[in-house]
Design brief:
By secondary structure, this protein is α+β, with helices and mostly antiparallel strands. It is 27% helix and 9% strand. It has helices at 8-13, 45-53, 68-77, 84-102; strands at residues 21-22, 25-26, 141-145, 151-155. It has a two-stranded antiparallel sheet with strand order 1-2. Helix 2 packs across helix 3.
């Protein structure tokens, strides 16, 4: 599993953990002044990209970062072919795309918080002014990502948001 709490000492003493590099200075992995409450492993986009490049049509993963589910396929489809000078911008844009999709209906208006009108049938800014849409039929985001790192975000017509 991803719970490594019982192995904190072993992993720390064997130099198996990589610190974050903050402005050229590695951060301590487990500062002695902080109490460790949880220690979990998350996969990133790289294993997902490698699986797709190896021919996988479906990738099953354990615990992974939210954005990795989008970054991995985009990296396999577009990111490997970019010049090195463009790769970081591409990864940043792909990470944003991953977070937009992961947030689901919050992206398309589900984070609407006008509680005085939220219990009405047309809450959450239903597009047509009719009884369709609203929170009962919130539209999920549809994202198109382009090889240059730009993207378009929309949702299905007639849905709330």
């Amino acid at each position: 599993g991803d719970d490594l709490f019982e192995r904190v000492s072993e992993l720390s003493s064997s130099n198996s953990l990589m610190p974050f590099d903050v402005q050229g200075e590695p951060e301590p992995i487990l500062p002695e002044f902080k109490m460790c409450m949880s220690f979990n492993a998350y996969l990133g986009a790289e294993p997902i990209a490698r699986a797709i490049e190896g021919g996988a049509q479906i990738v099953l993963t354990g615990r992974c970062t939210d954005s990795a589910l989008v970054v991995g396929p985009l990296l396999a489809l577009h990111g490997r072919y970019l010049p090195r000078s463009k790769q970081l911008d591409f990864l940043a844009a792909a990470s944003v795309a991953g977070h937009i999709i992961e947030c689901g209906c919050q992206t398309t208006g589900g984070n609407f918080t006008d509680w005085f009108i939220s219990n009405r049938p047309l809450a959450a800014l239903s597009p047509s002014g009719e009884q369709e849409g609203g929170w009962s039929d919130m539209g999920f985001p549809v994202l198109t990502f382009f090889p240059d790192g730009s993207m378009e975000v929309g949702k299905s017509e007639g849905t709330g948001g």
